[in-house]
Design a protein that fits this description.
It is built from 1 helix and no strands. The protein is mainly α.
């Protein structure tokens, strides 16, 4: 009787361990999938940020040249007066 009970108990524990292992494997796959998704999103955001930096630098250069042009015109007009 004790041996049969022990065997049943071990079988039950074994099946529960299998369930835990299956759950762990499922979670591992899900975490890897999420990591890959996040990595793609980070790469895309990095690309977008780099593009914005270039755009901002271009706007900065244009504004600087326009400001310099206005400054020259004002300087010439002030010297005429």
């Amino acid at each position: 009787m004790k041996k049969e009970y022990l065997e049943m108990l071990l079988e039950s524990m074994d099946s529960k361990f299998d369930l835990v292992l299956e759950g762990q494997e499922s979670l591992r796959k899900e975490m890897h999938g999420m990591r890959d998704e996040l990595s793609e999103k980070i790469d895309m955001n990095t690309f977008r940020i780099d593009a914005l930096h270039k755009k901002i630098d271009g706007v900065d250069e244009k504004l600087t040249s326009k400001i310099d042009g206005v400054e020259e015109k004002l300087s010439k007009n002030v010297h005429r007066l």
